[in-house]
Amino acid sequence: MLAKETLQTQLHQIIDDVLAAAKLHQGDLFVLGCTTSEVVGGKIGKASNPEVGDWIVTTLLDVLRPQGIDLAVQGCEHINRACALERRVAIARGYEIVNVVPALHAGGSCSMAAFKHFDEPVEVEHIQAEAGIDIGDTSIGMHVKFVQVPVRPTLDTLGSAHVTALRSRPKYIGGQRAQYQ
Fold this sequence. Notes:
Number of helices: 5
Protein name: UPF0340 protein ACFQ5J_07445
Order of helices and strands: HEHHEEHEHEEEEE
CATH architecture: 3-Layer(aba) Sandwich
InterPro entries: Antibiotic_NAT-like (IPR028345), DUF436 (IPR006340)
Radius of gyration: 16 Å
Pfam family, one: DUF436
Family: Belongs to the UPF0340 family.
Organism: Lacticaseibacillus baoqingensis
Distance between the termini: 46 Å
CATH superfamily: Hypothetical protein TT1679
Strand content: 15-25%
């Protein structure tokens, strides 16, 4: 199995690359989509690993919390890709809380880890995060606000899982006379 230190080192590099590109601010929301099955070399949904999910979520929280960036963790399709997040974030953003608790094969290892490490975890169906990472091609695009811009981290794998990332930017409006920041 993948060593914890190796996984954390890889994940730190990926997070650093995404945060540098996304230029997030305190209070922004960062979404994680992850299949631990793919991280450990299995097929999505077939080799879930709660220990690896715990390592991934705690590593993200260790980086994001000091910056005031909130984490949302997308569950699998068996809970309609609902996201775990802190109750205070759901309320502040006006998200409707739904009644489900993630389990190993209905939500996944990372969602379970979020429920373990969040102060007051809840699930919501739809979010609008400012950026996020997708570990294992779990399709986080539905949870990143428009306009989405791909981010290419230096490392494109975490363990055996393919990694992609997204950030958002404000829409460009106007015409040829418009000026942009």
